[in-house]
Design brief:
Distance between the termini: 18 Å
Largest sheet: 3 strands, antiparallel
Low-confidence stretches: none
Shape: extended
Strand order of the largest sheet: 5-4-6
Order of helices and strands: HEEHEHHHHEEEHEH
Strand content: 15-25%
Number of helices: 8
Number of strands: 7
Length: 166
Amino acid sequence: MYFNKLPTILYNFPVAGEERMFIIKDISVNVRFIKETLNNITLYDEYDINDGDTPEIIAHKVYGATHYHWALMLANLRFDYANDWPMTYDRLEEFVKDKYGVDQMYVTRHYENENGYIVNSDTPTAVPVSNMVYEERINESKRRIKLVSKAMIDQINDEFGKLLND
C-alpha cells in the first residue's frame, strides 16, 4: 500500500548496451509523521514487539490488515528492518558472536554504578557489563513502539495519499 501511493517517474536504465526508459515508483519522496502528532499521547498506544513479530504481523493484529505496516515504521521513525527492529535472542547471540568473537562475548565491556552510569572499575559500586549484556540492552530498547490508534489509521492513510498526490 505504501509504494502504491508513491508517484511514478520516467527513468533511463541501460539495457543490453542501450538506454531504455522505464516508468518506476519515485522512492525518493519523503513523507513522515508530524512530530506534534507523534508526541500527542492520545493518538497512539504502546506495544512491545515479541520475538517473531514483523511490522506486517503487528499491523494485522492491530489494524486487521498487513498493508498498514508502513504506518508502524513511519510512526516510529524506523526505516530498516534489519537494524531498527529487535532481533530474536538466537539472532542476537549470532550477531554478538560475529561482532566480538566467541571468546569476547562475555568479556567486560565497561563498568556501571547503581544508577547505570559508566564508571571506573575501582568505583565502590562498579558492576561489570559484558559485550553480550550491552548488546542485549540495545536490542531490548528497540522493542517498545508506538501504535497509531486504530480509529486514526484510515485518516492517516488518506492524508498520506493526499500528501503524495499534491
